[in-house]
Amino acid sequence: MLYPSIDTLMNKVDSKYKLVTLASKRARNLQNKDTLFLDKTVSHKFVGKALEEIEAGLLRAKPVLDSTTYEDEEL
């Protein structure tokens, strides 16, 4: 069984895509020697540690505006 479970993580983040993006960015920061927000973790890998921080409520995704226009899009 995976820890933390996807069910508990989906209570913290409203989309699986946001969850993956948030966890991967945080794992990259941890890999680059950023400090861990938790004192003790179950996971040994960076992605697992990032997911544990999300479950603990220490990380949240920023809200995205719906009216985002990209450079290559025509108005």
- Residue windows where pLDDT falls under 50 for at least 5 positions: none
The main sheet comes to: none
Helix percentage: 40-55%
Beta-strand content bin: under 5%
Radius of gyration over alpha carbons? 15 Å
Note the total helix count. Answer: 3
Number of extended strands? 0
What does this structure look like?
- It contains three helices and no strands.
- Helix 2 (16-31) packs across helix 3.
- The chain has a domain at 6-55.
- The mean pLDDT is 86.
- By secondary structure, it is an all-alpha fold.
- The chain has helices at residues 6-10, 16-31, 46-55.
Notable traits:
75 residues, mainly alpha, 3 helices, globular
Secondary structure topology:
Blueprint: H1 6-10, H2 16-31, H3 46-55
Short description:
The chain has 75 residues and is mainly alpha-helical.
